[in-house]
Amino acid sequence: MAGPGEPCAGPGVWNQTEPEPAAARLLSLCFLKTAGVWVPPMYLWVLGPIHLLYIHRHDKGYIQMSRLFKAKMVFGFALVILCISSVSVTLWRIQQGMPQALEFLIHPTVWLTTMSFAVFLIHAERKKGIQASGVLFGYWLLCFLFPATSATQQASQGDFQSDPFRHLTAYLYLSLVMAQFALSCLADQAPLFPKRPPQANPCPKAGASFPSKAMFWWVSGLVWKGYRRPLGPNDLWSLGSENSSGELVSQLEKEWTRNRSATPRHTKATAFKRKGRGNKEAPETETLLQQQRGKRGPLLRAIWQVGRSTFLLGTLSLIVSDVFRFTVPKLLSLFLEFIGDPNTPAWKGYLLAVLMFLSACLQTLFEQQHMYRLKVLQMRLRAALTGLVYRKVLALSSSSRKSSAVGDVVNLVSVDVQRLTESITYLNGLWLPLVWIIVCFVYLWQLLGPSALTAIAVFVSLLPLNFFITKKRNHHQEEQMRQKDCRARLTSCILRNVRTVKYHGWEGAFLDRVLHIRAQELGALKTSSLLFSVSLVSFQVSTFLVALVVFAVHTLVAEENAMDAEKAFVTLTVLNILNKAQAFLPFSIHSVVQARVSFDRLAAFLSLEETDPGAVDSSPSRCAAGEDCIRIQEGTFAWSQDSAPCLHRINLTVPQGCLLAVVGPVGAGKSSLLSALLGELAKVEGSVSIKGPVAYVPQEAWVQNMSVVDNVCFGQELDAPWLETVLEACALWPDVDGFPAGVHTRTGEQGMNLSGGQKQRLSLARAVYRKAAVYLLDDPLAALDACVGQHVFNQVIGPDGLLRGTTRILVTHALHILPQADWIVVLEDGAIAEMGSFQELLHRKGALVGLLDGARQPGDGGEGEAEPPASAKDPRGSATGGRPEGGSESDRFMKLVPEKDSAASEAQTGLPLDDPERPGRPKGEDRTQYGRVKAAMYLTYLRAVGTPLCLYALFLFFCQQVASFCHGYWLSLWADDPTVDGRQTHAALRGWVFGLLGCLQAIGLFASMATVLLGGIRASSLLFQGLLWDVARSPIGFFERTPIGNLLNRFSKETDIVDVDIPDKLRSLLMYAFGLLEVGLVVTVTTPLAVVAILPLLLLYAGFQSLYVASSCQLRRLESARYSCVCSHVAETFQGGPVVRAFRVQGPFVAQNDAHVDESQRVSFPRLVADRWLAANLELVGNGLVFVAALCAVLSKAHLSPGLVGFSVSAALQVTQTLQWAVRSWTDLESSIVSVERLKDYAQTPKEAPWKPLTCAAHPPWPRRGQIEFRDFGLRYRPELPLAVRGVSFKIHAGEKVGIVGRTGAGKSSLAGGLLRLVEAAEGGIWIDGVPIAQVGLHTLRSRITIIPQDPILFPGSLRMNLDMLHEHTDEAVWEVLEMVQLSATVASLPGQLHYECADQGNNLSVGQKQLLCLARALLRKTQILILDEATAAVDPGTERQMQAALGSWFAQCTVLLIAHRLRFVLDCARVLVMDEGQVAESGSPAQLLAQKGLFYRLAQESGLV
Questions:
Q1: How far is it, in rounded angstroms, from Cα 1191 to Cα 353?
Q2: Residues 459-515 pLDDT 10s
Q3: Nearest to residue 329, comparing CAs of 540, 32, 578?
Q4: Is 596 helix (H, G, I), strand (E, B) or coil?
Q5: Nearest to residue 745, comparing CAs of 705, 701, 715?
Q6: Within the chain, what is the greatest distance between any pair of CA atoms?
Q7: What's the angle, vertex CA 1167, arms to CA 1166 and CA 1171, rounded to 5?
Q8: Tens-place pLDDT, residues 186-209
């Protein structure tokens, strides 16, 4: 509405022929009146329809009429009536013949329509559930500001009597608009019938007012709560559906699938395979990064289509923010113009100070909205990409799985996804700084004229340097990522096979390998950091060079160009914006370079070959009796589309209810046949069909880190009677009864708390519980002893077992069960050699008879059971499937209910299933610290950096800041120099000194930044070594209690933060802190009155920081712990992918992963909005310092020179973001220093005995003879538990072969663990050749004893390295042992032979081949003492006989301890020890023990030997 007074008309209003100061033009009454009339209606008519369309598409429900709504409508109709009255009065006056200016009719008419539209918007928002309107808030604010300014000026002229009606309507209008503005600051009630269901703890943003949303005040409640006490999961808000994984992943997956199908597909696994480089480390130094960049396009388009609306809205906010950013220098120019003109009225100075304050505040608000939207987009994309990677893991083909490793996938989720999403914040930094630079040049041209052209020459001359630096940094960044991947794979492999590493004393060798890779990684990081410092300084120098060259050319070349305050300090302010642009540009390039590497890795992984869902024609309906349940016709299969077939022309038909046994030598293709039936192999030709649901038991048991009951149910509902039946049949009840929490006991990471046999039986129980129609069983009896194996076969698999009536395909080496099979298939070299019933094949005297003859003893009862590890012993356990003594039916059902107090159960077993510090803590959860980070963590980090380096860095920062202060102060003196004949007499001197100070500042800046970054790398190296040492020195029990995901998280994500984030945050903190000291000094010295305002501002800053830091650090810890669960679950699923697909439970697993990610999102969202809360409020308070400095300058105008005022105000304009970033850097540093805290988590955990003590009781060559003596030996697995082995005393003579037998849990493997000191003796001791092993270093001891465990383990690397880990033997010796184990021909046929690269876990070899290689490794060591722990479980009987012969000849003169689960192996031993409940029950020769008819005799009866 028009203000009172005369219209803007007349010949002098827009006359620009007469010069007039810019301030006078912009602050004229006519300009303010015109803007006040037209700006608010234009604003509403532009944004109103868009807002209406938006709320129509996003209906939130209906809001009842509230008092707030009614008040808005009353004031709205009052404004409409006021506009109508203005139009009516004007028309009446025209009718009465009074001349009226046309604007008095047009303006009220425009406002009448606009106010009507505003009232309609208020009503429409209520109907659509809008509780607070940002559009109307802005409209009422504009309606109030412009007319209020013009009305105030008009009122000061005292013109009320001329037109009292218009004066009164203007004042009434302002009152009503002010009331509407006040009401728009409030939020309405929630919708009565919301479209989305209510949540338990909803986010308060939905019910917040618009100012609260703009300033993020709605977060204050959570921040205050975090300040008063540590935040917990229950304090966090529920996750909105728009941020949930299910919705986000489905959107991205839909776009990804659509874009990929539109692009020519190249889904070959070779795109992901690592290419060798001619040395043994080649596979470990390759990354997921591939040359086929065409895979980048579909994923990039999918991400853009999902996030473009949010990104574009955030970019629009940033552009508006930049408009206000460039308004500030113009206002400063007007302000200095005002200071230089003594005749300008003071009110214009105050108004300019207010306008600078408002411009800075609006810049802050729009910039923070930009950051908020992009951070939310970043969080959403992280969830979507994590879900996409997880879904890809579930679909990977076998060849793709073999070409990748668990560590690679964990790195993708923990590092690459994080880096890719973080780069979104910097995408606008690739183009927007260029716009800033152009605008800055325009400003400089206006200020300095043609002299500004020299700035272009300076920038162009520096461009090649920056392009060169960027290219080199890209190269080193990729090299660092390659080394990081290599380290992650090796670390993951070591942690997952730590028992094997400790058996052989290989910790030192693996530490050397990891540290060697780490040194290369840090070398690349060091070079990249130095180049980063050069890049930053080059941009800093370019800004200084622009100022120097421009000022020099302006003052020295042109005769009448003198330097004044306006030119100097407005130019300086513009160059500060230019400096930010140039500083932001390298950050953006750096982030995008990192993101590109990570993006290529993600695209390559997502393009890997997947299993073909159409490879198997599966039907969910069960087939009727007599029908063919499984049919393969002319089937030829390969592990990948490019590899040679592994199964040739398979023709197989299996009727419903048939028990089909598949036998054959190692490598014949037995497991491949099951994989083909599951669709895991690439089908070259033929057809496969299966009718009915399938259950699968893999050869290597896969167990989840969940409770026993959850593992068995596997997502199905609990059926307690059926569960009891299944556990009984699978002989698991004796084990379950010994667990601390019964069936609710967690199994640990990869089932580490279970023995091999227990894991296999649990895997079988999972399949049986499924009640499937088809069972594919891959040698489930291999890990079971004779008694348990026979029990499981009879009760589960056999003709009278639980699975009778179902179709069963059993791969087995247990030839004694073949007579009970309905049909037998013999495989050789990937083809069916023969098939038929047992009797038919005997009569044919073909391949089966050859296998039986090779076995020699067809009465074998199974393949032996691996003894439980240290954490899984049940001294009271029974090996039979019968009920434990004293057990009852009700007892068993009680076990299905979670026990509230498991202390009693735990005291009866040696099973440490919980954390030592927190008994009963659920496995998989990472420990979370509480409260502020302790000062000791900072001291730990600074000590790692080094005291001299810290002091040197502080000195360098101080020096460069002194140079910066002198640099600015010298410019103010230059600006105040008097002019003589249009020139300044000392211009040349001023220019030279100005240039010298700038050079000193640049040198100091580079030296200080490089010192901090190099010190950070040094600290990172030492902290990583400490973590690696702490973990490697931990006893085996530590790894059984600690989830692998927690360890991998520390070795990947936390290490990455210490590598990159902490040095960067420390550098930023020091830069901003010293910059803050300079600004405070400048403002205080120039205008001492400002101290009165600076001190309260500092107190406010300190208050905000204290409130924020406690919450931020706790949220950081919670986020890290939650993300560990995500990593663990991804790694677990990667290992069990075939089982998940076989059971068709991809859906529940995806839901479980989404739940883990959503829990992480619940922490991430409060953390990011708390960051915005801090930034917005700190900048708003800091903008007050700009206002204070300008206000003090106006008050002290008569006493200050323009140069000092320019110095003061330009410095104050910097302090807002300087102080805000100083606090943010401090907070980010404290949040990141949590990673140091987590790296030091394991420093205080119990450690093993020294590997190589200074004094050792054993002197080489030891042991000479191999005599072993146990003297009253006993051990326990935890201090509070009873002895698992007690009172064991016996002597083994040199060269004697002793068998150790007993039921499951009797303590057989405990003796081996005690001999290798995996668990230290609790009483008594062990002597070898008269030397107590407690006085021998662990590595000395373990290197003198060879153990061949049941599980064959190979590490990534060459075959040569796997056989001779310490490089102690010649190639000839290696070939000799390969000949002994009959693998020389196989190895000779491999590419590279001894240098053939083994995949992670040796997945590119069969289990039997891996076992033979482990045997060859033992033969190569040839120690005086050998421990065999069922080393031949995974090989066929013929190969087993040859292995026994090789062991007998090679270790003929050695002392051999044979831990046997099949008694026939101990019949040729000189002596047998029979263990029972942790004690030696019987001892003697096999013949003597059989004659005694004691426990050994009963075991022999169960094995069918007597």
A1: 6
A2: 777 767 777 877 787 788 788 888 888 888 888 888 888 888 888 888 888 888 889
A3: 578
A4: helix
A5: 705
A6: 138
A7: 115
A8: 988 888 777 777 777 888 888 888
